[in-house]
Amino acid sequence: MTPNSLNRRFRRRRWLISSALFIVCHSVCPAIVEPFETELIQTPAKRIDELIHKKLDDKGIQAANHCSDAVFLRRAFIDVTGTLPPAKASIAFQRMKADNKRSRVINQLLESDSYVDYWTLKWSDLLRIKAEFPINLWPNGVQAYHRWIKEAVSSDLPYDQFVRELLTSSGSNFRVPPVNFYRAIEGQKPETIAAAVALTFMGTRFESMTKKQRADMAHIFSRVAYKSTDEWKEEIVYLDPTQYSPMEITFPDGKSKKIAAGEDPRQAFADWLVQPDNPWFTKSIVNRVWFWLMGRGLIHEPDDIRGDNPCVNPALMSYLQKQFVKSGYDIKGLFRLILNSRAYQQSAIPQSDHPEAEALFAHYNVRRLDAEVLIDALGWFGGSGELYQSPVPEPFTFVPEYKRTITLSDGTITSQFLEKFGRPGRDSGTELERNNEISVDQTMYLLNSSEVQKKIRNSPLMKAAIRDSKGNNRVLIRSLYLILLSRNPTPEEMKSSFNYYTKMLPKTANNQRQKRNLWNKRQQASEDLAWSLINSKEFLHRH
Amino acid sequence: MLLNTSKTRFNRREFIKLGMMGGLGMQLGSSSFAQSLTPSARKPIARSVIEIWMWGGPSHIDTFDPKPEAGREIIGPYTDTVETNISGIRLNASMPKLAKLADRYSIIRSLTHGIRAHETATYMMQTGRAPGDGEVYPCVGAVVSKFLGHEANYKGIIPPYVVLTRSHGRFSEEGFLGPKFKPFATGGNPSASRFVVEGIVAEGIDDNRQVQRRELKNQLDQFGQHIQANPAFQKLDQCEEKAYDMILGEARDIFNLSLEPEELRQRYGMNHFGQSCLQARRLVEEGVPYITVNYNGWDTHKTHFTTMNQKMPEFDNAVSALLQDLSDRGLLENTIVWCSGEFGRTPRIQWEEPWNGGRGHFGACFSGFVAGGGFKGGQVIGKSNENGEEVVERPVYPQDLIGSIYELTGIDPEGTIRNGSGQQIPLTLPSDKGRLYEIM
Prior knowledge:
heterodimer; B: alpha/beta; eight-stranded mixed beta sheet; two-stranded antiparallel ribbon; 16 strands
């Protein structure tokens, strides 16, 4: 099929749908902003969308348009896998005609290796996986724990079982990796354990619980004990046998339970926690997943659930909780549910300046790329790995070039880039530890650092684009746009870029020397274009 | 004693301050004078601080606390010392130039914290705190740059806390103060023909091309134009504006060491450390409140003496040139220079394989020096025993040194600072008059 006939078909179909849309909308729909938005609705409205729109209608907030295919693909790649789409994938997706192409891509991404890497990273942040200071898992413990989490993500271990194993395991930090949950807690006292459990699995900050709740929870974990072995840095987490007497424990909801002698109070706590009607458990995880994908919790901050921090859409929250329980605590299913909603596939360009528009999800929430995602994107374009360092001699910081930053296991291994761009220190396990706020030294780094310049100059992707364009600057410009922004340039962008090349390139190239000069200048103009695209807001943000 | 030789000069500011102390007149001999000042009553003297950080832990015995009588097991080949221009103070013979300037600095021979691990010792020396109470404390540089930079009247275009050239990660950083107080690490090599400063001076891109590509970028960034009201995007624009003030503005010249006379550059030494010290002085002239010069290579487990023979002339040249230069320009009176590592090194030499004459980590007793910014020179504080293995007089703990620096920069060491969750945390541990009042 020629591009022209494709175009015609496309236009015809768009006309049909937009006229249908007009009838549905009653009022005039906001103008579409190319190339970021589309009138073509490929995603049927879901229960999520009804619930969101009900809220928006109540407040008289106009929802954003639908995002274009190009924007959707980039967004889904970054949100689900922490990875930019390769240019090939962008082209293939543009050409794909299936009505359900978005949900097909979602399914593919959810089954990819990068999904496993990226969400293992997320859990490693929240579970505070690092070798040293202030959390001291030590390198071997880190490896065992990280591998266990990766396996859990990869095998879609149901969330209730995942949490149960973390809470109730006993044994060696090397042989029973989930016991490291109890080691990755600063202080390792009943109170700090209880605080970590509340934060991680109940989405609740310890200080916002009542004094009695705190004391009751600490009591549940008062028998957790630690001892070392003859093996270097091995540590056993166990229940203190000198305290094998009956006890009574009280859960945060006020219910009590008698624990017989020799019984594990942590087991009783886990039983209580993972019940479908537990007031914290499903709410907390559903809210987290919503926050991860939508950029804001239904309760915000997502790990600050408390009575006086209201949920902006309780009906939606309870719907998601029910679906999650029905799916058998399937995290990936929850991802799929949200990713396939129109709410997720909205444009980032707001149509309302209502102060609550963002909090009620009237548009997609733009966020700066995570530190790890950004350095991986730059490394992928530049064909080079990151140089890591560690403030302590162990862990070793030799990481093979091909390993991506999202696969790093140990929070003690870091780099100047990661520190500069706000990668979480894994000290507290709060979501707030990740700092995606832009700063002057970040912009200086992006605009003018030797590392970014070097990556652009040596980029194998750019070199291949120059070679394959065979001297055609328009082809070259289009390639760079597809590589870096996952879309074609608009006519105006093409014009500005083309003029830049024309201005920089010599008019004639007859002899060998002039030809070399022409090649150099084309390289230089391409560096400047790539630099401009990398420094654009569109590149630096999920949008 | 406050003043002990005719060579010690009053700086003008102190003279004025003393004069203003009403009836006090010229009662200078009284050491109770300094102690009678409450911290909050002390006016800031220092405007800038230069920290020379000997990363890895230099041997105290082979530098500022020589033990010429201690025998081969302790001092190896270093039997020679040098008399300084203050009678009674001797240094290892490898520092002839610093020996001539002993009136400008005071040596502390009784630093102690007892920690032998790099990371914990560094953390203690940088924050004055032991790890493990649930807080990650900010280091002295972050605190000084907070009070003298962002929250004071500092209007400079260079960030208020600069590290030459590489930071040592978490331990020289902001702790609970947050990323705003992270130091700016220059990267690059100041002794190269062009000092490439991360983000400010890019290799191979001239101003013309900087301007052109910036225009191109602004033309192309269409997505941003559709969401102009987004606060994150507005913040990005502001940050870019500031970045360009540095890239195309005067910040470039501040880092252009070729503007310095060749003779002076040579005096500092044409090496990474020497030129870093020179750059530090240029930053002091710009009013940057805190500058760390990170000088690594002192972790001499093996063939210690070979390394020391190589490094000490470099150290002696650069530090003496820095003190002399600051003092020639009248900057020393308002600039603290302090120098230490995270610990010293084991007095007993490990002659056996695989160390072949090495020294291990040693936190029980080590040395450093302070100069300028209200610190008197020509003094020795504290004393170690005959082998340098323990402090026998006037121990100085990390919080004493850091608290003294705070006091001279006008920061109340007994004040509080807000941590990440909003609680007010004491700035330093109680010091029991351990601060260096005898030389302040």
